[in-house]
Amino acid sequence: MKAVFTFSLMTLRMLFRRRTLWGILLVILLALAGIASVPSFDVSNQGRFILDFGLFGIEVGALLLALGLAANLYPRDRETGTLMPLIAVPLSRWQYLLGRFFGAALVQAAALIVTCLGLMLILLFHRLPIPGDLLPATLLIIVEGWFLLSTVFFFSFFASPPLNWPLTTMLFIVSQMSVSEFVSAMPSAPGLMRAVRLLLPHADVFHIKDPIAHGFEIEPVYFLIAVFYGLCYSAFMLSLALAVFRGRDLK
Length: 251
Known about the structure:
Elements: H1 2-16, H2 19-37, H3 46-70, H4 73-80, H5 83-88, H6 93-125, H7 134-156, H8 161-176, H9 179-184, H10 190-199, H11 209-213, H12 220-246
Helix pairs in contact: 1-6, 2-3, 2-6, 3-6, 3-7, 6-7, 6-12, 7-8, 7-12
């Protein structure tokens, strides 16, 4: 694992030097500031409005970060000729994949924590209370971001970056749908659609913005189960990515 750790740090430093990360982070923070500047006709609901749309903005930011950080990592390594020397001597394919993933995951998590702090500052600026579950809610979004990151890596081994973006975004949208919404897309085959939806990821387990905005407390066990679910699905997607990567002829 020492090789994976070292390669992860190399990936982390490389991504921090890219302007893509800072551009996406700036867009997210500006979006949060824009949400906070929208006037509310009901002062009592101002905090609820900022929390609800602010957490949604951070969630969309997790998708943008996953795509911006990882969609072109493998294609660029292959096009520039740096992939073959890496996996020929110092790294195996699974070490290359995990090193790239862990490095990108740390950068993504740091960026999302910054956006959470930005949301806190906005609440303080408007003299609104900061809910105690805001940080755990951000943790769930980070775990969701890691799942999206693993999905981006999976698609990157057989799809170009311009195709990776719509594929991952489509999965992101589908994972937000309830079973009834998914079945309504093809009502002629409800059994098939229900079975397919059950196999697809359920990103709704990561969304607790509505209970937080309305002041409801979330049981700690729920956070543990949601985090476990997200990590397991991320590991599953990375396993699929590794299987595809091992089958690729890199010559």
